[in-house]
Amino acid sequence: MELIESRSIFSPATGFIRRGGFEWTCNPYVGCTFSCAYCYAAYLPQNRRPPEEWGRWVTAKRNAAELAERQARKVAGQAVYMSSVTDPYQPVERSLMLTRGILEALVPHRPRLTIQTRGPLVSRDIDVLREFRSLRVNLSLPTDSERVRVQFEPKAPPLEKRWDALSQLKDAGIAVGVCVTPTLPIEDPDAFARRIADFAPAVLVCQDFHDAGGRFGADTGEEARRLLAEIGWGPADYRRFVDRLKRDGTVFEGETGFFPPPAAQSVVAAPAPGLFDDCE
Ligand code: SF4
Questions:
Q1: What does the alpha-carbon distance between residue 263 and residue 133 come to, in Å, rounded to a whole number?
Q2: Of 21-35, 54-68, 212-226, 231-245, where does mean pLDDT reach its minimum?
Q3: Which of 52, 186, 226, 250 is the most core-located residue (most Cβ within 10 A)?
Q4: Residue 272: inside a domain, yes or no?
Q5: Residue 267 maps to a domain
Q6: Confidence band, pLDDT 50/70/90 cuts, at residue 270
Q7: Which of 54, 118, 141, 152 to mutate to test the pocket of ligand 1 (most atoms within 8 A of CB)?
Q8: Which residues form the Radical SAM core domain (predicted)?
Q9: Spacing, Cα 269 to ligand 1 middle (Å)
């Protein structure tokens, strides 16, 4: 792992994140050791290493928390997406606690914060997360199958640990999103749909796994496309799954699902089972 001094920790949002209504992005790290086969971040210009090396390196902004202390004022009350090119709760965060430091610095400035992660480590910070007045934590759960997860996300946390984190967050009164993004092959669509409906996330997002011509991510990994073809999962399977999910509530697709939480919302009442209706 490389440690660097950074000059800023909040960057103006661009692309689908900007279109979704976010003003800022926040990336405590560059690179990501979760190593997802489909990761679009591997191809972004800020990564100066070849895409083939993606997943084998991470650079930490060692002064991230100090920067956040100094710069959080400029994002006060605005929509911040954490993180756009890395995972804020990848393994190195356990010891470095840069994400936690940024969160602590942000709390007094009341941003509308969205955290996007595959890392159950996010539940470590529930004490800080509860302090936000406008927050959503999005956990990525792209499949119901550990076998599929291992094929596409070999170094990311097991799915059940993510479910555990979702439950802990929700039990703490924190709004949570379930992101079936990109939607990987699903072993038992009906059972997965029922489990999600029973959990009743604040927001449910799906993202078809296809080549979008670079317009939106999750479509760029050649190895991921090869795996998908090998498993035999295609657009018709995706559509059937989404249609099944829609029987139980609202499903946002693609970038339409990545929008900030409502202003001044943080500790929320649990939604009624089967409804995803506090997201509009
Ligand atoms: S966790 Fe996110 S940033 Fe990390 S490799 Fe997977 S998709 Fe990319």
A1: 8
A2: 212-226
A3: 186
A4: no
A5: no
A6: very low
A7: 118
A8: 18-251
A9: 30
